[in-house]
Inverse folding.
């Protein structure tokens, strides 16, 4: 079973198999004997090849949180198929919410021609006002939000018509 | 006001400050209630309170800003005093008046003082008239039509501020005339939304200034003292992130001077209760009045560490009508204290507010470490309120010991499930400029690249191993052992 | 000894004191290892250490008492210093010698001083010869044959002490001649078991005395200072339970006097490192030398709170050969501090040591609250080591504020799964005699009935409801709902 | 289903049934409407009749720990049948370990006649030495421990012959 782990900007395709003395992680850079020993209360001893370390680990769905050597790391596990799908339309077809929050005002209507950088929507979260601007020139296909709406992170606020 | 002791206290706030106020009040045997909007999921404060009073509003924030509802809650519950904490209604004279009408004490200054200082324009005028230094400025209300022109006349760069503002909300730096109108409009919108008042004024913006503030306290009998200064120059978008006392920038002479000016302003204003006088301190060693906050500050604990005073306890004593009972000479200063604000903000996403569940929460402890937290493991962190989760406060014999303890405290802290600025805080502490105490309010912007942590390389192998081995499906597929799979079931959290 | 800084430190201890030492050492960037016997299940210290070195022994305690094994562990790991904590090998000169032979520094006084003070008989002789007050006594070694007779001649009541003793181990009060022989035999057995030395001596026992001790510190350059006194009279069977500073019993004059005597004794002994001089303080205001502990004390944090000094950091500086760098005048005192020892003892079972798993552990926090804990939620507490789980330390501006914070801290604490003295501690704090500061070492015995809590009536209805409704089988039988039953499955902990 | 809950010195026979609006606890003193609402992290809201309170609750087997209003309470649930059985021989037939620990020395042999209060065994736990004495006059039937033994709480160290 193969999975892609996104760590920061980089993605790593990995699979796990059972080796002679324990688990082996197959990565692009070759096989890596590894182990994870629970120490209780979210604490684990991780070993990967020669490396060893104690860490706090928590999972939420396909997101893994690791507190290791005084740093917090987030790894997102994506199914290769989903990744493929996502690659199809890279959100380039619209403007997305950069944070969860509330819509303050919408500054464009469907059909409007906008230039890259033009103000589209003003939203607010935790008393912080942010203006969402057009990622590129184009024509507005639809507006998916209205003042007062609560929107989640990455929610597509405005979508563009496909460039012809 | 009456001089009777406070027996039933309503805390009209939430989060870490509500918990911190409850701890002091309860320790004194005061019965405590807290108001809570349904959007508040869990949290520490409701656990500490003797009673929880539900409040409602169009938005969660609106509920905490509803003077009538809060005053009515206090009356119905039989409170004889209300502590507003900071933010929300803490600087709104209407609450003090509504409570006074109901014979309930407001833990804070009289409404007249709040009004005087709450309006930045009247405040700076009041201070200037008494010979304290203020910066060149232009005030919209003087002649709205010519405001933009007068603003530019102050000389760029300028700082736009809401007349009724505070805490950096709605403040914007303008360095070029082109963007002035747009920024004025945005600042006005925010002023209207947060303070119900769109009036603005602009001030000459001092480059690379330090933000230094002084804690003052006055009683109902005319006594006013100060508790030394706090260095608050480590800021992002005018939001303080790290505060310390004493300030590394001041020599003994300047310290005494700035503290006396602050106490002098408080005396002139007939100040009662705990307050903070904020100053801009320029690279040239000159300082001038910025504003006065007529409430408890987020960063008050560093002052408590070095003076040994409990400022909330002093607020309650003053509200009860007691005289301070001590003079300036009785207030000593011991060691150095630093406060770190742990916020649900994602540095990797331009410090956007982050939400999620606190899957794992570990707080530091040990000698010289204090944690003022508002959250508990397992609770949800939403986007309804500001992003402050907890404050880590360390106290050491000197700055280097305090700094060492601060870094150890961060290392002992863990917060998984919600993105925070935890690692960012550690990179700030590790920065040579911070270690040297040589920084201004421009520090974080100037060093943004280095503080971004791009230079740090993650332990990829260990992380991938953890990710794969904590994935029940991958382990099961590989090991094909039902037992192991079941064990991994523990991961449903 | 060399004057090089310490880079690799082995902590030869366990529990809360190991964790507390690790925090200070790590904050200074020192790499730290800890020894651990397999019987040590979990615990906080191993989590804080950079390395954990397994040790073995006939019994777990024996492993921590094994000089050769500890010294060898330090050598193999490449430690340049060893901190012994308290108890175990902290006052055993053999360890210091073994380490010295291996070129490793021992964080503590030189072996000669430990030997002088470790032998209670030579210690009291040394102190008496220099004109400091000691109590009437009889020493077995002077003439074993006549010891019992001479013991009675001291005048009943008398206190039997092992010559090599400490921490109250093997000490017994004798009030009637009949039981003298039996008590001497028992004290000798315990002396042999814990100190490998059965020699005894007796002292006149002062009725209703106070136990007051003074913290001292000396460097390798002849400087000796004191950090004020600690009041340690709240004891059970000579085991301290609650300590505070300053002592409510002393006026400024007596305080200065007793502290100077302590510093004088340390100077006379050429003392190096942190140590404590213990005194008996009689109802008549007279005090005399009891013993000197040549190590860090369990109760050292109260001194750290009021002075702002980190005593472990000072120990490390002294061991590294640094001069103190400050004088007596530089040591100030701010406020009042109280320490509460949370122990796995069951007051309902005559304070018998209790074992079990820490199913739920909640530690207090907030202004003026410090927790030095050695345990984590979920771990097992066995009977292999002493019963101290954690120390709650509070600091206030004055005694009444410290007391109020102490009671709040206890209220915020929870420890389920292992019987503790938590509620007993609160009853002590609530006792009018403690509140008044008017108590002696006889306090807990005299007030045993009241402190037993028999007067408290449990909220039976609520408890029975909790018991029944948290019982999966009872709920399932009553509700006959699989869903609810499953939910109750969560109770398997 | 009936259970006996031991709370301090007193025992309470209780059973649970489903009432019109929720659970009802049947006690010697009559029926008591009750509820237990989980608040997360071992915290619960308990209600019993008119009373309400928040508490921390933990179970270990048949022992329930409750932290309520600044006090810690322990409740032991016993099955009526076990209770009956226990009542049969009340440990009066021997001397039990008052704490878990290690045996230091055994001072009696099987067959010995002992008087009430006579020393039987010396044991030690957490550096505390305790002498276990005879609860009553009698003849020693058997000694169940030897120096160095680790014994649990309430372990029967020495048993007596039945008085004839």
């Amino acid at each position: 079973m193969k999975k892609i782990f996104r760590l920061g900007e980089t993605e790593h395709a990995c699979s796990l198999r059972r080796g002679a003395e324990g688990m082996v992680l197959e990565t692009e850079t070759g096989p890596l004997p590894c182990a994870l020993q629970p120490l209780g209360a979210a604490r684990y001893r991780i070993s990967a090849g020669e490396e060893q370390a104690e860490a706090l680990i928590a999972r939420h769905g396909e997101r893994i949180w690791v507190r290791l050597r005084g740093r917090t790391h987030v790894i997102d596990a994506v199914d290769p198929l989903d990744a493929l799908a996502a690659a199809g339309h890279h959100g380039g077809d619209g403007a997305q919410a950069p944070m969860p929050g509330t819509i303050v005002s919408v500054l464009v209507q469907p059909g409007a021609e906008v230039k890259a950088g033009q103000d589209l929507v003003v939203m607010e979260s935790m008393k912080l006002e942010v203006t969402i601007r057009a990622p590129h020139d184009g024509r507005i296909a639809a507006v998916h939000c209205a003042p007062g709406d609560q929107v989640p992170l990455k929610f597509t606020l405005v979508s563009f018509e496909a460039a012809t | 006001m009456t001089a009777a002791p406070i027996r039933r206290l309503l805390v009209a706030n939430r989060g870490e400050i509500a918990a911190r106020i409850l701890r002091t009040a309860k320790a004194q045997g005061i019965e405590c209630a807290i108001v809570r909007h349904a959007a508040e999921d869990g949290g520490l404060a409701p656990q500490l309170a003797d009673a929880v009073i539900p409040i409602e509003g169009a938005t969660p924030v609106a509920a905490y800003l509803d003077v009538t509802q809060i005053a009515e809650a206090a009356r119905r519950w039989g409170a004889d005093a209300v502590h507003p904490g900071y933010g929300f209604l803490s600087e709104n004279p209407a609450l003090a008046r509504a409570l006074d009408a109901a014979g309930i004490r407001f833990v804070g200054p009289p409404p007249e003082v709040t009004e005087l200082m709450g309006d930045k324009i009247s405040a700076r005028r009041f201070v200037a008239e008494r010979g304290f230094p203020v910066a060149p400025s232009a005030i919209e209300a003087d002649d709205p039509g010519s405001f933009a022109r007068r603003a530019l006349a102050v000389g760029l760069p300028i700082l736009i501020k809401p007349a009724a503002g505070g805490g950096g909300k709605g403040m914007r730096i303008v360095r070029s005339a082109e963007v002035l109108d747009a920024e004025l409009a945005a600042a006005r919108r925010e002023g209207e939304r947060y303070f119900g008042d769109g009036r603005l004024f602009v001030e000459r913006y001092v480059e690379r200034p330090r933000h230094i503030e002084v804690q003052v306290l006055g009683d109902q009998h005319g006594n006013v003292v100060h508790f030394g200064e706090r260095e608050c120059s480590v800021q992002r978008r005018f939001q303080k992130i790290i505060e310390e006392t004493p300030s590394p920038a001041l020599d003994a002479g300047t310290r005494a001077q700035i503290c006396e000016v602050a106490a002098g302003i408080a005396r002139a204003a007939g100040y009662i209760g705990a307050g903070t006088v904020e100053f801009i301190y320029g690279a040239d060693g000159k300082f001038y009045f910025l504003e006065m906050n007529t409430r408890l500050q987020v960063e008050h604990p560093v002052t408590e560490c070095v003076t040994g005073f409990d400022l909330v306890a002093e607020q309650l004593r003053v509200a009860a009508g007691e005289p301070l009972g001590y003079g300036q000479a009785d207030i000593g200063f011991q060691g150095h204290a630093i406060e770190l604000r742990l916020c649900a903000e994602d540095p990797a996403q331009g410090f956007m507010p982050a939400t999620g569940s606190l899957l794992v929460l570990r707080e530091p402890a040990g000698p010289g470490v204090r944690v003022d937290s508002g959250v508990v493991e397992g609770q949800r962190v939403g986007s309804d309120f500001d992003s402050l989760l907890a404050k880590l406060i360390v106290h050491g014999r000197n700055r280097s010991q305090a700094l060492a303890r601060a870094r150890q405290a961060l290392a002992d802290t863990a917060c998984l499930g919600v993105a925070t600025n935890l690692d960012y805080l550690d990179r700030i502490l590790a920065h040579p400029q911070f270690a040297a105490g040589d920084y201004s309010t421009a520090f974080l912007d100037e060093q943004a690249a280095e503080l971004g942590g791009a230079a740090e390389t993650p332990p990829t192998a260990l992380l991938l191993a953890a990710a794969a081995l904590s994935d029940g499906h991958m382990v099961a597929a590989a090991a094909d052992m039902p037992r192991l799979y079941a064990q991994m079931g523990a991961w449903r959290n």
About this structure: The longest strand of chain B covers residues 224-236.
